Amino acid sequence: MDRLVETVAEDEDNVLSGKYLHGLGQKARLSLVDVLEAPRGFWGSFTGTGAATFEETVQLGAWRMAGIGPLPHILDHNPQERHPQQSHSTEDHPTSYSCTITSLTPTKVSCTAAGLSAGSYRPMVTMAGARAVVGNKVTSTTLPVASALTPQSGSINGGAVLVGNSSGFIPGYMMVVVGGAECPMLQESANTISCRLPPGIEGEAAVVVSVACSENVMAAKAFTYAAAVTPMLLSVTPSTDVVSSTTLTLDGTGFTLSGGTPEVTVGGKRCGLVSPASPTSLQCIVPALGGGKHEVVVRDAVFYMKENEVRTIASVSEDGLEVTLTEALEHTHLSVTQTLGGHTVETRAEVGLLTHNVKIQGNVGTDFSVAIEGCDTAFRPDQHATQSCFNGRHGDEIGGDQFGATVILSGKFPDLDLVMGRIEYVEVTKAGQAFQLGRYPLHFHLAGDMGGSYIRGCSIHHTYNRAVTMHATNNLLVEHNVAYNNMGHAIFTEDGVEQNSVVQYNLAVYTRTSSSLLNVDVTRSSFWVVNPNNIFRHNAAASGTHFGYWYRLDHHPSGPSTTNIYCQNTEQMGLFFNNTAHSMGRYGLWVFSNPGYHPKSDICGGRDVVAKWESFTAWHCERGAEAVSGTKLQFHNFVMLDNQQAGMEMVSVKGGFGQDDSPGIFNSLVVCHSALNSSACTSGTSGIVAPKTQIFSISNVTFVNFDEGGSAALSGCSQCRNYQGGYRAQVKGLAFENSPNKIRFQWEHETIWIDADGSLTGEPEANVVPTMGILPTDSCTQEAAFSVTKNVPGSVCRGAMKFLRVAVTNPSPSSLLGKDLVVSNDFSATHIPYLMLRIGGAGWMGLVYTGATFDFNFENANQGGSLVAGYSSDTPFTHSLIIRLMDPEDVDAYSMNLGWKTIGVFGYLRLHGQVWRRSWHKLGATVEVGTGHITLAEDPDASWLNKEVGVTTTGKEATESEVRRVVAINGATLTLDSALKFQHLGEIHTLSDGTSITLAGEVGLLSQNIAVEGITENSNGGRILVSTVFQNGKHYVGSAQVDGVEFRNMGQEGFTDITDPRYSIAFLGLDAIDDHSSYVKRSSFNVNYNVAVGLIKTLNMVVEENVIYHVLDSGIRDETGSNTYRWNLITTVFFLGTYEDRQETENLNWSGAFQLDNAPNTVLTGNVVAGAEQAGYKTLGELCEDTTRWMGNEVHNAIYGVMLWKKGGTGPLTDCCRLNNFYTWRISDTGFYVQHYASSLITNVVSVDSPLGAMQIIYEPDSLSHKFHPKTANASHSLFVGVSPSHTCEYQASKSRIMKFYGDKFFGGGVGGGNTGILLASFTSGSNSKL
């Protein structure tokens, strides 16, 4: 006992440092023999778990022991020796892995663990009622994989950051070796590594990544050391007898390769430049040094912010254009006009006035003032950078208490004109208070409408907490101001509710990172925009540490303005026009927030609309402009010059093709290198980087000087991991000037480039894709312009080829994990590797093309499969897909007897079509016979054009629903391909008491871009069965996610038994659905020969917003309950007894369009039944004491509206069942029919134009039992309208075909044949045998 406690205490410090993992694992194993001596309950108290024994504390996760977490190098490796000071960033590694049992005997268990990184582990087997068993060490031989190394080449002097995407890494235990020399780690995670490159010799150097001190080493990937991009120092004059203030002359090559001013140090101290450096020579003033030899170092100054200079004006010329300074400038400041790609481009440094005669200045406390020496190395803003020190990271400066002046303008109540601020030509300095939210230099605080207020012509410089703040303030004018040397954002909006302000003609220079406020101020921006509905025009951002303009659009406002009823990330774009940014550490323009920017036509909803950023110029930035996530985001008239990594980039955006509908880049100029910087292009520079998801448009863009190394005008799959992508980008109107490098691919299957007009390839409608073995040699040719990456060349495919993205995700069985998917055809094959981290989930992704047959095989695997078209509702399938189910010529014997034309789902089915808005609408006006156009109650989506729609019946016959094709859309009016044969109501009436009633049919969308079609004969269509099966010792449970799919000619008539439900789609025996693994949404069922959707022994499913047309007996049948049905439309429901002119007089079955009489606890919201030959809803009702789950359901033009009846049903005498929140109109017999053993409550219902509004028959106890029970029948809070203004005697006198079939079985009418609201309840001994 004592030995264990002492041993644990020895490494107390290591527990805190995170290096105790290995030691704890060893010591715990050594001490297991001692734990038996501990008194019962000791370890439960010691660990706080309350366990009785030590073994139980292990099972409760109290210890991080061998077998619970990975222990790489457990036998011969001490982590402290590898990382004595772990100063770089690491991410936690998984602490446990589940191992799926594959075989089991009394003496042996075998299992498979997925995602296991390389290293040593101890397995622990837990058995019910027994102690956990810890086994001997096992070793995973999974090799780490590094890919997409960036950069791929660089200086032989090293120093650059090497970044690799990865898999199988173990944070904290990785080692990178480049050319035989260790590359010091900067960041480690399971998926990313970065390190600082060591010096090397010219040529390729192997990059080797390993789990530290193990033999598991990945295959090398080369990095090229290139003398051509390496600055060389050849001589220093003088080199002896050098004292402080001596002018050194340095000769060499490549001093200005980066385009910035190089940094010189002597003995580790900066040597100030005398004049601007040339590529081969520079001069500097020696700092104060001690005696002895000192090293002279010339560093590449990638970042330019230290070239900002403050000077005093000595005089101004008479014309005001020439300014004489009291002191010479140290750096070159550009003013260059160039003609590039036919465009005249001006790039000029800015000059801003800092001094004004009215000054607001904070006090600088001398007690806190201290001189801070700059760090040894220059500040680097990239996300993987590690600064060499904290204070002084921006150079020499004077530190202080950072407690400056503040100006706050705020009324007690907003929007009441209680405060006005007009601040003009004022100097504000030493202002703002660090570490204090709200303590800003100029701060409009919760002011509301500030129309008439402004900040004009001011300078706000050397501030400690931002510059100009618009906090919950609207309509403010901020113009002609200069913000300089501000910590945190300079000019910004705050909560997300700020709108309609005008920010124009402002200059923000040297906006720098702040660690004394919020996280967003660490990566600050000159202009921070949190609501897009503002005007930003004619502004300039220069020489900031990170971003020029940052649109950070959260979903809801924050801070004092917090609310959930407004969504700024769906707000429409105001104006962004004629702004510039240059010399920014990161990006000129960044559009980024976690929810993304998805502008809509309405607040927090509506249709997607386009957002435009216009006329933006960015140069000398890491990236010119990037939009990370959103819908229909567009860059127009951009000019991008000499940016390091990319001109423009979008990462994950949604929309269609074309300027009206697409995310994309239009009418722009992108220059890789110009007179500003002849060496701006690198091997990784791209003009435009296309997204990693969805589709993208590039139109009328000119590319200039993409001729260096591995630079490329176009590249794809932004921020992708290895082998992700596969999406489409469409280009047209492209021009290339001195740009032979057109496209760079990273791997096979990466991106599909569609050349709409031939401006990319010379062939309209050609495709450019990575070269693959499956490409047809007669249509596809490999070309140098698209082969910038030599080992991933590109090919141009001409003709009628269309490329498609095919993905197989989340595979089962687990034996497929890690195996290649081999896709082959008549030409050859391509191997697609398995990856854990794909966009749609673990699995495979590749490209195929139409018009060819492909074989899909998993290498060395027994194959199964699943069907996927569109990963999810957010990433739908955007092409056209028809899955036809036909009678096969020959059916192989199969253990699961599914029959023909069947998709049996025992794995998973994912079908997600392209859905835009609502799938059905109400009519907005009555449509008369012979009319060829209809008006809806609201505008439909434009995607309805050329689609089939169903117009529901409002007449006596359920068959008066009509299907037409939409040939034109004008607002809410649809023009149809042929006239309608029947009247369809679309009326709203106001009754004498002011109540409004709507009598309107519906119009539902039937066409979808994914269709599952049964080839029918004798009402025998196709079907989908989602069920379970036990095979080969394993239980398979199917799942289906269906969204935006058309089911056409589905279902097989006559197979209605719930053990063999041949419905259009049936879910059988799935039990409780977890995490929405199955659903049916926004789909259409267009002609069904059985039930459309059936749920049997399946619960927790959602079925919503579907359009179901032409079904037999029922549209939806639920034999389980606890499922959710919302906003579904069911129309044209036939009775099997009279279907196709049958006369089955003995067929006494009664069904509802919603057949729910065996489905308790069902959610019913907003559903409509329009035209049923029997009942609209057949249900057992809700228990009166339960909270209602029914709301806003409707039925019209049925025999019975809502039928609460199950023949012979019985139950506890105390039960009470409720019908709640239904609307029925134009019912042929009874709106609400109740025949039930339980007491009845009808409440919150409306019945209009029905012969009988409500009838309640309550039966039992049997009269012969001589028992009594006080049962009740109630109707409350309801409205019964005998006749509406739309009612006619002709309509009432007419009889439908189904009414004639039933003869006298219906309600005979009220006195004189009129309509009746409520028939007083009957209490009977038994159920009515007449029905």
From TrEMBL:
<dbReference type="Pfam" id="PF24606">
    <property type="entry name" value="CEMIP_beta-hel"/>
</dbReference>
<keyword id="KW-1133">Transmembrane helix</keyword>
<keyword id="KW-0732">Signal</keyword>
<dbReference type="GO" id="GO:0042995">
    <property type="term" value="C:cell projection"/>
</dbReference>
<dbReference type="InterPro" id="IPR019316">
    <property type="entry name" value="G8_domain"/>
</dbReference>
<keyword id="KW-0812">Transmembrane</keyword>
<keyword id="KW-0472">Membrane</keyword>
<keyword id="KW-0325">Glycoprotein</keyword>
<feature type="region of interest" description="Disordered">
    <location>
        <begin position="73"/>
        <end position="96"/>
    </location>
</feature>
<feature type="compositionally biased region" description="Basic and acidic residues">
    <location>
        <begin position="74"/>
        <end position="94"/>
    </location>
</feature>
<dbReference type="GO" id="GO:0005886">
    <property type="term" value="C:plasma membrane"/>
</dbReference>
<dbReference type="InterPro" id="IPR012334">
    <property type="entry name" value="Pectin_lyas_fold"/>
</dbReference>
<dbReference type="InterPro" id="IPR002909">
    <property type="entry name" value="IPT_dom"/>
</dbReference>
<dbReference type="Pfam" id="PF01833">
    <property type="entry name" value="TIG"/>
</dbReference>
<feature type="domain" description="IPT/TIG">
    <location>
        <begin position="143"/>
        <end position="226"/>
    </location>
</feature>
<feature type="domain" description="IPT/TIG">
    <location>
        <begin position="230"/>
        <end position="324"/>
    </location>
</feature>
<dbReference type="InterPro" id="IPR014756">
    <property type="entry name" value="Ig_E-set"/>
</dbReference>
<dbReference type="Pfam" id="PF10162">
    <property type="entry name" value="G8"/>
</dbReference>
<keyword id="KW-0966">Cell projection</keyword>
<dbReference type="InterPro" id="IPR011050">
    <property type="entry name" value="Pectin_lyase_fold/virulence"/>
</dbReference>
<keyword id="KW-1003">Cell membrane</keyword>
<dbReference type="InterPro" id="IPR013783">
    <property type="entry name" value="Ig-like_fold"/>
</dbReference>
<dbReference type="InterPro" id="IPR006626">
    <property type="entry name" value="PbH1"/>
</dbReference>
<dbReference type="InterPro" id="IPR055401">
    <property type="entry name" value="CEMIP_beta-hel_dom"/>
</dbReference>
<dbReference type="InterPro" id="IPR052387">
    <property type="entry name" value="Fibrocystin"/>
</dbReference>
<protein>
    <recommendedName>
        <fullName>IPT/TIG domain-containing protein</fullName>
    </recommendedName>
</protein>
